[in-house]
Each structure stands twice: as C-alpha cells, then as structure tokens.
# Entry
Amino acid sequence: MMNTFADLGINNDILKGLSSLGFQEPTPVQEQVIPLMLERQVDMVSLAQTGTGKTAAFGVPLIQLTNSKNKQTQGLILCPTRELCMQVARDLEAFSRHVKGLRVLAVYGGASIEQQINALRKGVQIIVATPGRLNDLINRGNVNISGVRYVVFDEADEMLQMGFQDELNAILAQTPAEKNTLLFSATMSREVKAIAGRYMSDPVEITIGKRNAGAENVHHEYYMVHARDRYPALKRIVDNCPDNYSIIFCRTRRETHEVANKLIQDGYNADALHGDLSQAQRDQVMKKFRCKNLQLLVATDVAARGLDVNDLTHVINYNLPDDNAGYTHRSGRTGRAGRSGTSVAIIHMKERFKIRQIEKNIKKKFKQCRIPSGADICKKQLVNLIDVVTKVEVDHDQIDPLYAEISEKLGALDREELIKKFISLEFNRFLKYYKNAPDLNVDDREKKRHGKREHQGREFHHNSSRKQKFTQFFLNVGRRQGIMPQGLIGKINGIPGVGRIKVGKIEILRNTARLEADSRYTPQILAAFQHAEINGKTVSIEVSRTNYPASRPKHDEIRHRKGRKFKAA
Ligand code: ADP
Ligand code: MG
# Structure
C-alpha cells in the first residue's frame, strides 16, 4: 500500500495546503525524507533528479518542525539563484497556507533591500535566500540567524559552481553549532561533496535512483541538420506540434537573444530569458510563460534554473550543453509530475558523438528523427486548424443579431469557396513559408556526395537543389545609390524566417551590383529586394544569367566580362 502524507506524520493544517495543490501521494524522495526529518535530528544528503519533488521533501517537514508562535528565524534555505529562491518560497507559502502565524520570506539580490529589511523586522520563521543577498543583510545587521535549527542547501551542486564559497562560509559562521544541515541535489558532484564535507557531520545519504518517474517519462530525440539549418529546423519542429509549449535551451546569452528575436519576428509567441535582462524583465517573462501567455521560452541554463513548469511538451536543445550533467538538468524540465515529455536535440554531423556520450550517461537511447517536410507540417497545421474550428464555442447571443448582415456580405460565396477562403486566412502563412521548402535532413550518403562535389569547385546554378550552392543576383542599384556590402548583407540577414543565409562574392559597380548567395533561398532573397526603395530608387533584382568563377581577382573584372565565355547556369 502506498503511503499518504498523513501516514508520514504530516499534520492537518499542512495536509490541507497539500491537497489544495493536488498533492495526493508523496513522491519517493518525500517518502524517505519526511519521516526521517520528523523523527530524528540528522544531517542529510539527498540525491534525486530534477522534478522529483525535493522542495516538498524538505519544505513540508520544515514547516511542521517550525514553531509558528515564536517569531525567531528557525529555518534557512539557501538557493543558488533568485528564480529558484522565489519558487521555493512560493511553494513553502502554498504548503503552509493554513498554518497560522507562519511567515516565509524570500531574500534575493536585484530587488529592493529595504523592503526585505522591513519584512524581516516583522519576524520571519523561514528564510529562503540567495547567498549574496543574505550575506549583505548579515553585514548590515538586518538579519539574525543565530537561532536557526535547520539549514537547507537546495540545488547544492549549483551553489559552488556559482562562486558562492565565501558567502557560504560567512553565513554558516553565523548559525549555531547545534542544528541540522540538509543538502538536496540532482547529482553527487564534486561541489556537493565539498559542501557535505565542510558543513555537515556524518550525514545520512538518501539516493533516489531508478525510481525517478520524471526521467522515465522523457523521450529523447535528435535531428541532424547542417549547422546553418539549425534555426529553420527549430521552426519545423515547433510548427509540427501545434500546441507546442517548450523551453528552447541555448548555450550563450547572445544566442538566446538571437533565436528569440528571430522567432518573434517570425510571428511566434516567444521570448528570451537570460542574465542580461533586468530582474523585472525576467520576472515578467517567467510569469507570462507560466500562465502560457508565452509558448516558447528561449533560455540559458542558468536563467531557466528553478523555473518550474509541469506541462511542457518539449525541451529543445538548440545547442547541446557542454557537459552531460547539463543535459540531464535540461531534459528533467519536462516529463514532470507523472506527465510525459520529449527532449529534443538539434545537432550537426560532427556532434553525433555527443549524443552517444549522453546516451551512456542517461542510460537511455535517443531516437533519430527526420525533420518533417513542409508538406507534412502544412497538413498537421491544417488538421489542427480544423480541429480548433470544430471545437470553438459560438456565442449565439452576440453573433445572431449580426448574422443577417454577415450572411448578406458572404452570400455570394458558395460553401466550398467560403471554406477555402477562411482556411487560407489562417493558413496562408504556412503555405507560403513552406512552399518549395528544402529537405533539411543530413545523412551519411549525402555527406559523401557533398564532399566530392566540393572538391570539384564551386558550382553556380540557380535552381534550389542541395548540391548547388550559390546563385548570383543582379541589382539595378550601385555605388551611386550608396549601396555598400554591409548594407546588402544586413538586408539578407534581416530576412525573417530563415537562418543565416550564406553570402558569397559581392561586387558593387557604379549603377549596379552583383551578389552571390545560397541558392536555396533564392525566392526569399528576390522577395526581400524586389521593389524595395534605396535612396529614392526602386530596386529591381534578378537572377544573373551569366556566372563566373568566384575566385576571380577583382581587378580583372572588366576583361573577364568582355572576353571570357562563362558557363551559363
Ligand atoms: P525538484 O526540486 O526535485 O526538481 P520540485 O520540488 O520542484 O522538484 O517538484 C516538481 C513538481 O512536482 C512541482 O511542480 C511540484 O508541485 C510537483 N510535486 C511535488 N511533489 C508532488 C506530489 N507529492 N504530488 C504531486 N505533485 C508533486
Ligand atoms: Mg528543486
């Protein structure tokens, strides 16, 4: 028989809080930690993966062990990031909603210190803090932790990595010798051992290994594309799942910023979460994502720490993290609380070994998937649209009075035409974008063929098959109109909906310009320039019919143009 929280010795006030959160049965880590904390005075190291319910494992017994009639600070929880700190405090507040007089306060940097000081003055039994801010408050004499009985290190593996060693020493020096210290982490890393060795005496070790339901519910998939196709591949993965709700992990702030911006430009409901944002901006983004006003969150690993959302459809590794533990953390963001989820990696050919390494590490196999074709995606989106339409609720009170007018206006269209028009209204965006969309998948056969071709020199054709690389465009504007290479490149890079388009040789003459660019994007490039206005002149662009070798030195351009026979494309 499964234990209930009541069986573990939790009192009624807390049970009420838990059941209103929908917590019915304790998770494995809760089952082990809660009774131990309630019954004995021990130091403890608990290792369990992300999403296994560690917060309640320490939070619930800590609340029960706190004397809410005494205003002294009795429990201290240390968290590596502000987000995690806020999250943990929020969770503890929810658990203790029906416990009279119990106050929990989150104390973190980047927010008003005065407000935190005022809140501390009122008496707070449980403080959830980032080491930096807590240390500031200690130095200013605004916080008294000399009476704490429990110190918890949450996500301890992150704590030292973030360079909080000195702060931790200073903080722990203010706590009494008589206390219990508890450490929670996903992995037993060097950092965890260091904290355990320094601050704990003879800790009990609890490892929740195989029973982590979270990780078992996660499916791992990878897609292999050329590095330059990462972004279009991402779009297809997202478009292929109409109710996508995902975190997209990038490696750097810059990449996060770039990917989010492109997605926004392309009309997705996306935003970025990274360390360069102000605290207020970050809160705003997280809030929007939590309540699903945002569909795609593009984030760095650190910024996404502690962001706790249960029903993600995907975790997408836009770029794989540098270490395997990083992958475990990321993929653990999905498949939480009994749901299933998918962790996706977009890789290029040289990264396949990383997949093999991760497989060893997580002891699970990845499934190699193919990037869906434009046609597949359009079909999927269409089916979804029809599904949405059939399910939409009609407000007859509002619509009926207008119906006569609507029907008069649309009366000329027959049923079929009406349906087609109305589908096109929602759907043209996909049809247009995926018209003639290339196959983005890479496989070994292609690699070989590709390699050989490249040794034979560059080829200039302007149809859009894969083996052909550059198309040359001719523009009716040049130096006189102030055209500069950077300007042309900028315009091409600004084309929404495609990744970075490779640009080859650029040649700017007095009244004309030629430029080479990746053939696959010919239609997009033509569309971007055609009829644009540059310094008062309306641009006309066409695919150049004459091509010449790209390595041709600049100074003999005239001779070449006059004399040589060029291969026609
Ligand atoms: P961890 O700290 O191990 O990564 P969390 O404590 O953040 O995990 O919990 C993960 C999710 O599972 C949270 O959304 C939490 O509300 C939910 N959860 C935790 N314990 C239970 C439970 N006993 N029953 C249902 N949901 C739970
Ligand atoms: Mg946690």
Summary: The longest strand covers residues 218-224.
